Amino acid sequence: MTAATVDVLLPLGLDVPYSYLVPDGLELAPGDLVAVPLGSRLVVGCVWPRAADAPAPVDTSKLKAVRKKLDHRPLPPDLLQLIDWMADYTLAPRGMVLRMALRHEENPSPARERVGVRATGHVPERLTAARKRLIEAMSDGFVRAKTDAAREAGVSPSVVDGLVDEGALETLVLPPAPAAETPDPDHAAPTLSEPQAEAANAIIAAVQAKTFSVHLLDGVTGSGKTEVYFEAVAEAVREGRQALILLPEIALTQAFIDRFTRRFGVAPAEWHSGVSTRRRGRILRGVADGDVQVVAGARSALFLPFRDLALTIVDEEHDPAYKQEDGVTYHARDMAVVRSRFCRSPIVLTSATPSIETEVNARRGRYNRLSLPLRFGGAKVPGLSPIDLRKDMPPRGRWIAPRLQSEIAQTLEDGGQALLFLNRRGYAPLTLCRSCGHRMRCPSCSAWLVEHRFRRRLSCHHCGYQAPVPECCPACGAKDAMIPCGPGVERLQEEVQALFPEARSLVLSSDIGGIERMRAELEAVANGEVDVVVGTQLVAKGHNFPGLALVGVVDADVGLGHGDPRAAERTFQLVHQVAGRAGRGATEGRGFIQTHMPDHPVMQALVKGDRAAFYETEIAAREEAHLPPFGRMASLIVSANEGPAAEAHARRLAASAPRVEGVRVLGPAEAPLAVLRGRHRWRLLVRAPRAFDLSAYLRGWRAVAPRPTGNTKVSIDVDPMTFL
Ligand code: ADP
Ligand code: ZN
User: For residue 484, is the peptide bond before it cis, meaning its omega torsion is within 30 degrees of 0?
Assistant: First the structure.
């Protein structure tokens, strides 16, 4: 008789599971987490389903045995399927995809039991001041966790222990605090308008149907999309099932958590990198047990082991933050759709400016479109007026055109707030020497260093390199000759301060540092404590600023026309979203876009508020050029410490590409970001028809391609979103 074996996938850069012996008496099934020896280490892995055509190993004499099964619920079958599917699709090693589901539980620790204390009534003879305070605090007879008792009385925990020893307090075991409290679906249900109710009912029916379906909840900002999907979340909670809400940048969305709390009486379980490991461990268990019913999280929440996922929401589905660019490259929105298919449950994508991919799917009827045509309560989406920078020029070294300046003045006079949008962090994107023209660049990237005046430093936005602003030019030695070129938000604020010395202004960008500070500043804006906000794309996201009456887009051209097939879409979405920040309160909002290209179709669509025209033009252009979603794309980046090595391998790689009708391999060409972190980069682009299995092609290619040697590396990005 042959010994029993299982396949175990390890969370490492391996694509295939390893076989292990199963010790007598141990029952193992796919999804179980086990500790297995690997070399001299013990590694936590996952028992993997054995493919029907993969026979069990015959010679088991060299196999090692599973050491133990972890006290943990097995990963659910839909999650195993998702991992397999993602690995196949993205070409990432299966183990690295598994790692995203296991990352938080290398040391799964059980929820900590808490020790509680209660007064017994016995008062010891010798009483210090601290002991008196503690007895006083506990005199109500209630049980408190030991740490709470100490904190309340303002004494150290040893004082609590002392009184326990004296018999003045008795200890009890308290149950662990729940990972998240249960939302109350009827806590504060709104009265929905008719179109809102129609959309909500459609999603509720989809939840009840327990089948896979994709819905696009399409409505301008402020039309009540959140309010609508909350009703479907409520339905999942009522059924005792689970819902996942994916948010593009949860660290900044305190406002969302607050809203959820107002609606459901308790906060959702938050899942993102800002949550402590210990807390994440507990949420993970709660999700696996089915006790945690609603999770609001960043893209990594997609890999949680939901016991019974009834509904997934992808909020602001068009947001580029859903694409993970390093490690396993994947698009969380697309993978959420895949997982919903495996769970046989509905998924809702929400946006005021759907991605072209999603819009096309809705037009084809593959996604069910639910439209909310108006702002709730009749508030208007601001119209946008163009300001032609060729005619209405700001003075030299300034970026606010005279027209925009007078509009801001008017707004401030009327007591409104203004928001100026410029998608450039820092003070100036380039620093050069006035005397010799030398430009400050990153020593390890082909990128200019950006001046950050608050911090008095130059910084590389690609690798994080920092240096002080030099007093003398590093090339010619000229003193005090380094001058900033071009605008960043910090410099724009300086201009605001010069033009409107009375106004309180604030810069909002990711450089603020710290989630807490960010939350406080957003709140200050919402409370009207700021008159002029100068912000990067950070301000485009989901915030509600009721007093905001004017939005000025300082340079709408920044995102247009540099060889990125998604540039037009991005610009449209960003400007539309930023403009949508205004006029959400009682005041009617107004928007202005400064541009050198007022006739560009994207500008025209924005100015006319003609969303349909934008989609018509952009979809037609993509179809014409066979760009996604009308064709498939993958990008291959070859990088190496030396430029010639990267180039040579990229050329060999291109030469080894299997010839298949309809598939085109473009390049190699030096990447636009030719050097990143000291690595030289060459780029290949693969294009194929829509119905073509591009992942299978890439796997076949990889199998016959020359292996990279030395420090050369090849990374593959299926459905690339950026082309740097
Ligand atoms: P969106 O998600 O589309 O931007 P929200 O759901 O945030 O829109 O709604 C915008 C504002 O209108 C929010 O303050 C929300 O509470 C309010 N609102 C929307 N629908 C209703 C409703 N049916 N009853 C009460 N308030 C509503
Ligand atoms: Zn750099």
Answer: no
